[in-house]
Amino acid sequence: MSTSTDVIEQLATTDYKYGFVTDIEQDIAPKGLNEDIVRLISSKKHEPEWLLEWRLRAFRTWLRMEEPAWQNVQYDRVDYQAISYYAAPKEKKKLNSMDEVDPEIRATFDKLGIPLIEQQMLAGVAVDAVFDSVSVATTFRSKLAELGIIFCSFSEAVKDHPELVRQYLGSVVPHTDNFFAALNSAIFSDGSFVFVPKGVTCPMELSTYFRINAKETGQFERTLIICEDGASVSYLEGCTAPKRDENQLHAAVVELVALDRATIKYSTVQNWYPGDKHGVGGIYNFVTKRGHCRGVASKITWTQVETGSAVTWKYPSCILQGDDSVGEFYSVAVTNNRQQADTGTKMIHLGRNTRSTIVSKGISAGQGQNTYRGAVKIGKHATNARNYSQCDSLLIGDRCGAHTFPYLEIKNTSAKVEHEASTSKVGEDQIFYCEQRGISKEDAISMIVSGFCKEVFRELPMEFAVEAQKLLGISLEGSVG
Amino acid sequence: MSLLSIHDLHVTAEGKHILKGVSLDIQPGEVHAIMGPNGSGKSTLARALSGHPGYAVTSGRVLFNGEDLLDMDPDERARKGVFMAFQYPVEIPGVNNAYFLKAALNAVRKERGLDDLDAIDFMAVVKEKARLLEMDDSMLQRSVNEGFSGGEKKRNEIFHMAVLEPTLGILDETDSGLDIDALRIVSHGVNTLRREDRSFIVVTHYQRLLNYIVPDFVHVLSEGCVVRSGGCELALELEEKGYGWIEAGEARA
Fold first, then answer.
1. Chain B partners within 8 Å of A427 (Cβ)
2. Predicted pLDDT of residue A234
3. Which CATH code is given to the segment(s) B4-252?
4. Where are the domains of chain A?
5. Exposed/middle/buried for residue A454 (C-beta within 10 Å: 0-12, 13-18, 19+)
6. Best mutation target, B11, B14, B55, B95, to test chain A (most A CBs within 10 A)
7. B49 beta partners
8. Residue spans per domain, chain B
């Protein structure tokens, strides 16, 4: 008699499909972290003095901080002195067109199925491709520039728009915020920068693909997105990583700033190497993502589909400062085999009539552990604030776990806060029902899980939603026989 | 050749020996009613034939169109033309009923060597069958069985059967929990599907359903064995005398 547990066991056997290593010349800093490394990174990137000072302040803060241990995950602590903090493809002359991009790099993107040039144009997506730490290609920039939109790598922004970077960098996530944010602030390598000026609606989805490649090199991106009054943008982030045995640390910081009536939609599909089925290898994904609804009636939406990484620890959050501002968080997190995820959001209501929505869908299979951790804070001046939270967990098999930690802190009596939670199992009966209609077991699980995630997928841009569904299928492959 | 030939079937569920040597032969176009008191193994027979993982066949043989049915996975059985209308249809939240049915139909069509139906052709098929079961469009767009009343769920089962056009339809106590109107609609649906190359196994506790779906043969199960077989008059006799009559008769024999 086959049970759904057997079914799930078998699903866990599929190898990670994106495990390959690209052989290109790398410029790697010596292992270890000290002020000299921070200076090296800064000088490699020809940064201005103020930024070096900012990095050093962060570094000194980091030295005094303790790595957090309150999250519901277990992993071997990172040896920060065993990591190399900078890797860049060897510096080459300025590239005038995509044809000049290293063919090896382009081959890697092809393997990942990332359509970099024509396909992107057809799809209307501009891609700022981050290969390891340095941006190698940026498309569509001139088209965007006509509208006054800046979309470039973080390093370029530091060079070309230092006043904007200086004004906003660290204004949402200060370097003192947490251990990993401080680390990132000290040694961030590169990332993306978006600026949408007053009244401009960005005409296309902006998209960045990150790919961790260099061996034993942590990757520390820094992303900063600013929308001025009445501006709006939709930003897509997606990634895959090659197979590795060493744990690779990823500690990014993403800051979003929305001014009056601005709208920022930030969507992520994360598919980093999760480790093998015994939990060996895999990426540590310790990310700080925060949006600041600084202006009135501004809106920030986080949508994430997290299927990868060995350990995920992230809480894309919104500070709702402007009156009538809106924060949204839609999340699907999948843990299979030995994966662990502790993820959720914080909605901090400061302004009047601020509203937030949280929809979290956690899926656990194999021996995966999935934790939702969310905080809703209503400040004392946040009159008529409203929050709706919904946390659903889906279990596949009987060796996985789902945990929910919702925190509420309400200091204004006019607040309305609702929280709903459910836990369900993909039942043998559901699978059998689908099979009895002629649908294969694998398709049945994929269908049931997609149905469970529907409310989140609906929030993703169309082409991303399709990709996300596929990814979900791949991630749960082998949990079905 | 028989459509379905069951020979000396033994089935256990949750460690209990439930079917103890059932044999049955069904020709194309025939409707066979399986009756019997609670716990006699009626539903076990239906579920074992459809390949439910909770029901283990310990011995016996089942040929479907000459092929070994027990050797097939449940989805393969379904694609080969075995359909079971569930006694308790399962809810699948977030999965649109029409979308689900399209995936099922295209899986079945693939087995039959037919191309996938596109959305437009599919909707044409579905609309026609939905009328047969007096289902309104909202039932197509809602999640599979989610929030359906008992009667709606049973109608939806027969609707699925109408769309998938199996060669063997197994109705597992489809009449249980149905009011008279729903019973009429469901029966009408099944009767419309009756064809010379399509057979049915109708599992029911009550004779009532057989007033609407008139079987060619009635088999009475008791304690995992067929104790009596006959024409549809057997059902009437049961209705009159109750199952005690069969069981007592068996004890005497």
1. 90
2. 93
3. 3.40.50.300
4. 2-476
5. middle
6. B95
7. none
8. 4-252
